[in-house]
Amino acid sequence: MQLIKITLFLALFLIMTSCYSVRLQVSNGVWDPADNERNDPYAGYNVQTIDTIISRKITTGKHYFNISNCESGALHTVEYRTTFGGLLLNGITLGRKKKVKIKYVCIMENSM
Amino acid sequence: MANTKIDNRTWWDTLHKNGPFDLKLFLTTKMEKSSSGLSDFERYKDAAIEIQRLIQLALDSNERFRAIGSKWSMSSIAHCKDRMHYNAFLNLKFPIFEGEIHPASSYEHNNLFLFQSGNRIKDISRFLERRGKSLKTTGASNGQTIAGCISTGVHGSTIDSGSVQDYVVGLNMITGPNPEDNIYLERESRPALTDTYAKNFATVIIRDDDMFNAVLVGLGSMGFIHGVVVESENLFLLRRYVKKINKKEALQLANTLDFSTYDPKIPDGNFKGVRPFHYKVFINPYNTNETKYGAEFIYKIKYYDNYKLDFGEPIPFQKEFVYLDLIYLFIKIAEKFSKSIPTIINLLKSSILPKEEKTTVGKLSEIFWDAGYQGKAFACSFGVDHTNASKALELMAKVTRENPVPGIFAMRFVKSSEATLAFSKFPFTCMVEIDGIQWKDNDNLISLTDYSTKLIEVLKNNNIPFTIHWGKNANWKFPGLINHMYGKNVKKWKKIRAKLLSIPMQEVFSNSFLDSTKLSEPLAIDEDLIV
Ligand SMILES: Cc1cc2nc3c(=O)[nH]c(=O)nc-3n(C[C@H](O)[C@H](O)[C@H](O)COP(=O)(O)OP(=O)(O)OC[C@H]3O[C@@H](n4cnc5c(N)ncnc54)[C@H](O)[C@@H]3O)c2cc1C
Question: B144: Cβ below 6 Å to ligand 1?
């Protein structure tokens, strides 16, 4: 019984956190740099993360999710990531709430 | 006002994690915003004042100060234990106009640009392309800063164009905290800018060939490079093709660089007898049965706007290719095995280099594009006269089979540089390089220091004159190494350094790399007179 519970819990955990992500990047822009110690594709990139629950207003209609901290006013990379848990939340709230994780890197200032 | 964020840190590492190294303070200077109302020259000068303030702080604290670029060097050349300055945000760019060219100059004003030192190659290429211009050559990818490139002597395999420092025609150096320590330096024999223009950003103007050549590959130790005047050329296209060719043929081309009768047989193009812009050979040292090497041929063709209609978008193609930089090729081969490092080495004995017979056409910046691998890596890179290319490769590959490490070889070719300590010192230097992934002590392999010692020894014992890429891994403490490689040029370099930097400033701009190589040791008084 205990084993089944653990297995179910693990399966649920994996499903809830299993995710997909989409990465968009301009091929000819210069990324905002950072001296970080990462060894993933973001090594040397100044990555910003938004981990939030967005409301229906953002996903429909004329509303935007504003990014105001890019000094150059331009984006170099955007990674949109959603999890099964996030999709579930979307379902339960009848599309009113959606959990998203967005990573982005700005274009460097003075580089355009 | 430019301002500097000072972070207390205990360690720092290179992009490919060749450290970690101890560190006290990490400094990041950001310039006044473009919205400040200041002109770009005012922002540039303001940044210079801030750099001088930081140098004064280092001096007052009896500490060393070192500018770093993108930390792409794998040797410890960019490291200093006290104060490291991150230059990435110093990225202003200035075109040079007609009246700003020195009257005795042979340069065309529209080919010259002044770049602040933190500009990365990718950034510079974008800026130039929008003006119909291109850099003459770059390394295999584009993330280094212009100052970082020239300080170690970054090269591609552009046979007849030389290395990055070879198209630099002027330097704005900050050699100390005082107003007179802001210097504009160029060759007397090939002046570039008028005094009036240079006075926009520098206090003192020096025109001196020996000094310029010594400072060019300055190893981060000739002061702070604030600006670099670069000579560009009109945009051109490159047609790239990789194919497997017979070992004998590949080595013959390497030893002679004579392409006058060679036909690379590139589909839809007749390049028989044409000297390529770029020639590079890829070698798996472990499989001695393979009869072929991978050879990359790149030809320069005239630029025209609609090349993408004829050849497609080069960037997605570049992403599919495996013969990009050497480390990337190794990773692509090794990831097929995804086993332990000794197993990878074992499997390399029977694996052959991949096939890749596709043509791409693109601008320089599209062919030598973003680096594909960010993990832990090592690279050892030796320069030999190209006539010794096959001999050096054979010896180094044998050392590697006897002392296996997880890496593969390439050979690239570069025209000689005028820089006093350029590793591309032979008429045509063949860079024989091995790149790969790092291994652990429990992999039971030779250590990287011992491996590179063996490479040094084998070339020495076989009387093959050589140099080593300043930004790559080596046993830099090997006794007498630098004198063996550069002979009397070492004294020349030190003498200029002593002329340019006061004794306290020589200490501020030194680091352990310079100490290990004995380049920070001043010349004895009598030696000083002889040079
Ligand atoms: C993915 C990858 C690909 C590479 N490909 C090539 C290649 O194709 N060809 C090649 O030759 N090399 C190659 N290298 C090596 C690398 O390009 C060089 O080591 C280069 O010098 C790194 O430049 P950087 O801007 O990162 O400078 P850093 O590594 O940060 O610094 C290099 C030196 O420059 C000095 N420096 C930097 N800025 C200043 C300044 N403003 N004033 C004074 N000194 C300064 C530093 O103090 C240091 O001594 C590659 C490395 C990597 C990681």
Answer: yes
CA angle B294, B298, B300 (to 5 degrees): 175
Strand B25-30 versus strand B83-86 pairing type:
parallel
Burial label for B70, CB within 10 Å (0-12, 13-18, 19+), is buried
Counting atoms of ligand 1 from 1, which one is nearest the CA of B327?
1
Is residue B29 lining ligand 1, measured as CB closer than 6 Å?
no
- What's the pLDDT at A9? 73
How many A from CA of B143 to the centre of ligand 1?
Answer: 9
pLDDT tens for B371-392 read 878 889 999 999 999 999 999 9
In this complex, do A110 and B34 lie within 8 Å of one another by their Cβ atoms? yes
Orientation angle between helical segments B326-337 and B341-348, nearest 10 degrees:
100
For the record, the structure tokens of B77 come out as 């050349």
Region of poorest pLDDT, from A9-23, A65-79, B256-270, B415-429: A9-23
- Listed by start position, the domains of chain A span 19-106
Q: How many CB pairs under 8 A join A and B?
A: 50
B103-137 confidence digits (pLDDT tens): 999 999 999 999 999 999 999 999 999 999 999 99
Residues in chain B, total: 531
The residues of B whose Cβ lies within 8 A of any Cβ of A are 12-13, 15, 17, 26, 28, 33-34, 70-71, 86, 88-89, 91-93, 120, 122-123, 126-127, 143, 315, 365, 369, 374-376
ipTM: 0.83
| Dist CA B424 CA A75 (whole Å) | 39
C-alpha distance across the termini of chain A, in Å: 62
Q: What is the pLDDT of residue A12?
A: 63
Which residues of chain B neighbour A24 with C-beta distances below 8 Å? Answer: none
Q: Which amino acid is at B95?
A: P
- Cβ–Cβ contact A73 with B under 8 A: no
Q: What angle do CA B282, B71, B17 make, to 5 degrees?
A: 70
Helices (H), B230-275: 247-256
| Pocket of ligand 1 contains residue B182 by CB under 6 Å | no
Q: What is the pLDDT of residue B531?
A: 45
- Positions of chain B with pLDDT under 70: 316-319, 338, 525-531
- Asked if A24 has any chain B CB less than 8 Å from its own CB, the reply is no
Sign of the C-alpha dihedral, residues B250, B253, B259, B262? negative
Phi/psi of residue A66, nearest 5 degrees: -80, 135
A91 in contact with B at a CB cutoff of 8 Å? no
